Amino acid sequence: MTSPTTKNILVLGGGISGLQTAVSLLDFSCNNEAPEYKINLTLLAKYLPGDKSETYCSPWAGADWRSHASKPGASIGCTEGQDGKEKGDEGKEKEKEKEKEKEKDERLRKWEERTYRKWKSMIVENGDVKAAIGKEMGVAITPSIYYLGSTYHGAEIDENGVWFEDVVGGYRELDVGLQENKLKGSLGKGVRKGVQFETVCVDVDIYLGYLVHRIEQLGGKIIRGEIETKEGLEGVVRGCRDMLAGEKIDILINCTGLSAAHFVGKEEAEKMFPVRGQVLLVKGETRANTWNAKPDHELSARIIQRLKDIGWAEDLQNEKGEIEVQDTYVGFRPGRKGGARVEIEGNGEGDGGRDGKGDGRAKKIEGVYVIHNYGHGSGGYQSSIGCAEEVVELVQGLE
Asked: Which Pfam families does the record cross-reference, listed alphabetically (predicted)?
């Protein structure tokens, strides 16, 4: 029997977002003695670590930390020679979209920085890597090189570098033609900038298992089950309550990824799209709006050829100079127009709260507060802790 002040929380979804959200909530509760911070947490999911399905994308991730956010002040969405200013209603609409993009990237930078710093603090102490803990978690620090192509006009990296140079360790700019970069000579006109830094790489199978262990260790419960989605968000809440045999739910955390499109409102569902990812042993490629789950062998060959052309992964080549592929993974990342949705139902952009079309106040669905945490695309791991900690803050703000 829980006390009157204990919050009964159900996390829906067993991918990286759901598992990390559960761990962060339980961690916060265990580290605070005040009764208002105590929770009773259950995680409910159709798929759990160990399962293999193209729609359960967390086991297929490459999972290294490399920011997807633009630098503050970057000209988002502008080609060279444009300042992005246009007159009339069309210009106002574009300016509005740019402001939304800036807000999205500001949140993304916060989430990614929080995640990087937390991971590093868990496996590095006083400058020394705690290898045993990193091995248990499936997390390691490793050098990463980030190149800016001569035809690329994105906002994550430019001639001045990247936004996260003061966040990561070992940051330095590179001469892209030097052998020190593990290149066979210069990349020539293809690259105009290169930076190196210490990234965090994750063995996803080990890490997902570690999170499951932490949930159980901290007193959370994990239940396998599938919820009917035909009756919208209200039906999902009722289904979750039935799955728990009528147990009280105060807060439901929606971490269902692409599955959210089956029960959120029509306008919100239209923002969701699959991002097909194909991963070999060392690298992957993403394609938006593609549901083909079969490995593309031509794509695999191109990935391997790119590695060989620039001299990477030489230690993985056999006597004939070939790379032996042990497996090929394909999964669908949960893309969302406008970036990830991390907000309380009724109090955010996903339901009209930020653009003036809604009242902007948290509302209960079937007597339950709903917090959303989905739509992270291919950046689910590298923003996982930051997003989960924001969910913790949202939970604290509810009555």
From this structure: DAO (PF01266)
